[in-house]
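On clarity, I found the account of how folds are encoded harder to follow than it need be. What matters is that the chain and its backbone geometry are given together, residue for residue. I therefore recommend that a typical entry be quoted early in the introduction. An entry of this sort, consisting of the sequence and the corresponding backbone structure tokens, reads as follows:
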Amino acid sequence: MNIQQQSGQTPMNFAQPPAILSTKDFLYIEDILSWNLEIIKKANAYASLCQDQDVIQAMNRTCQLHMRHYQNILNHLGKHVQATAMAGGMAR
């Protein structure tokens, strides 16, 4: 028997994530963006140092992949901020 059943509470099941981002969520997102940016920088640096065209192409593909991830995360955050602002959730 789990704790929720013992206390009489029903588990919360979400069809989609809640529309609220906590401080912990923002810190994790900041980490994800930092990791992607670091990979972009390293892949770009390795590509510029390498002589093998196959490795250069692989590093360029890696760089492009993580740039897309970075941009997708920023776009998603932008949509969340706009939706929150439109709903009157942001302090001015």
Q: What stands out?
A: Residues 53-86 form the longest helix (34 residues). DSSP finds three helices and no strands in the chain. The mean pLDDT is 83.
